Amino acid sequence: MYASTYAATDPAHANSTSAGSGASHRRDNVMNDEKKTILVVDDDEDFLFQQKVQLEAAGYAVITAGGSKEARKLLRTTKPDMAVIDLMMEEMDAGFTLCREIKNVYPGCPVVICTGVTSETGMEFDAATDEERAWIKADALLDKPVRFEQLQREIKRLVR
After folding, report:
1. How many structural domains does the chain have?
2. Which of 21, 110, 143, 157 is deepest in the core (most CB within 10 A)?
3. Helices (H), 5-158
4. Domain range holding 62?
5. Is residue 39 a contact partner of residue 66, using CB atoms and an 8 Å limit?
6. What is the pLDDT at residue 152?
7. b/e map of 80-98 (b: 16 or more CB within 10 Å)?
8. pLDDT above 50: residue 1
9. CB of 2 closer than 8 Å to CB of 45
10. What is the CATH classification number for the domain harbouring 104?
């Protein structure tokens, strides 16, 4: 699994160890306090890398985890300003479960779920109605492949 911490803004955890990897990851303390930290969770290493590069280029601090288990460990010591998570990882509903956990621990943290389920299965998910939002808990759902402009629009809408 791939998990790493990049340019986190919390100096209190300067020597944190990434969940499951055993490797120390440097947290850049020279980062501007105004940079927002985004947690990206996906079991697809290519998606993680692509999002990390694009988000950092757009001025965000990025923390990545290769699955929901790694994300849970990171969330014990790090409070992101937003989370972007995959729906299907270790379990079919891992993204929904992780989203609910994030909202319980950090109620103000916006969560965007990215999923390829619609293109793979034809099943559509949405969080447009009150009933769907009560069950899904995500602030937005994006179908993969996710265009960066689409994700960036959601980040600007949700992160203040």
Report:
1. 1
2. 110
3. 45-57, 68-75, 94-105, 117-121, 130-136, 148-158
4. 4-158
5. no
6. 96
7. bbbbbbbbbbeeeebbbbb
8. no
9. yes
10. 3.40.50.2300
